[in-house]
Amino acid sequence: MAGPVDHCSLWPDRLFGLDWSACCAAHDASALDLASHLALGSCVGHVWPLMGVAMAAGVIVLGKPYGWLKRKWQARKEPSNRL
Question: How far is residue 60's CA from residue 78's CA, in Å, rounded to a whole number?
Answer without folding.
Answer: 22
